[in-house]
Amino acid sequence: MGNYSSEITKEITVFAVMIVLLIMVMPTVSAQENSVTSLDISIQKYEPFPAEIGQYVDVWVKVENFRSGQSDDVTIKIVPEYPLSLDSEKNAENNIGILSPDSASVQEFRLYVDENAKPGTASFDVYYRGTDNSPWIKDTFKIKVGSTTFDSKGTLELTETTSTPNMFSPGDKGTISFKLTNTASENTINIDGEDYDTNARIQSASLTGADSIKVTSGVQEAGIVGPGNSVTLTFNVEVPEDVQEGTYYLDLAIIGNSYSYNTIWRVPVTIDSSSLKMIPSKSMILTNSEGKIQFDIANLHQNTISSVSVRPIAEGIKFSPAEYFIGSMKPDELFTIEFSAVAEEEIELTPLTLEAEYRNGFNDHTTSADVGELEIVEEKTDTKAGSSTIAFVLLIVAAAGIFIYKKRKQD
């Protein structure tokens, strides 16, 4: 009996150890196999902003696979809460299918904002899973609900556009700023016997463009602009290296007091690819392996550039100064610069290149120009002329000696 009980005890112990090991292993295996854990959900955008009471709002949901494992059957569904509702229940769920590692999918849903809703925020849940057998994971998101119609009657005008740099070059980064002014001169205005304030509201402002100019700033909210006051909106932009010079247009879109106050301005942006022109201003000849050379440096860009410096490069030649710093140059401004040059090798001709660096706004640029060949000539001393000169000097000395001798003899 004792042996039998002992055997049972051993079996129970082994079974218990197996259960514990299984429990320890299962979460790890589940985490590896359950691909829903590799998904991330976010709201990319919604329009209009804010969502209008009594109107539809389009919501774009982004699902991303951020791990190395593949999600074989991704599905997402949206469950709104009052005051939001789906335009149709059949549109609540979207099956994406396979979502490879480091890839994403954007799904669009349409929601309705109840006409009795109050301004504020509204919530909705997004459920998602990576396979048909995976459990649903839920995230909750909020959107702003309000009205895009106000009783204010202020009118905005685009009164000034500035950029840094003033003129963009290919490859530049910078900013474009817009000054918007409320043109109202009084605090109130009476229309059909009813008084309205003259504030101007900027509910949202966005800048968009073509591939030629990339806008890296998002939507901005400026709020209320009082009568006669102004506000400046600034957007970051980037110009690709391969863009062609010319004039391009960006769209500045403003959502104002109401739809009747919404405005889109077409804003021109000019790209100028010209830079510095560098040419010799006198012959490039070194006599007896040394001499001075001069160059004219002209700014052909349509705005002021800064930190201009020029460096001559020629094999076997030493220049002084090694680099000439000019500083700022206005459009069409010209500088004449001079270098001393000494040939350190026995050469007759050597190509000469001028390399220039400058800044357009906060952007560094480099340009170079092959300006021709530097010539080294040797001039021999005229021995006949030298001998004549010596003889003439000796003759004068002899004459002076004779004169002094006779003078002393007379005395």
From TrEMBL:
Keyword Transmembrane among record annotations: yes
Entry keywords, A to Z: Membrane, Transmembrane, Transmembrane helix
Protein name: Uncharacterized protein
Presence of the UniProt keyword Transmembrane helix in the record: yes
Domain of life: Archaea
Transmembrane segments: 385-405
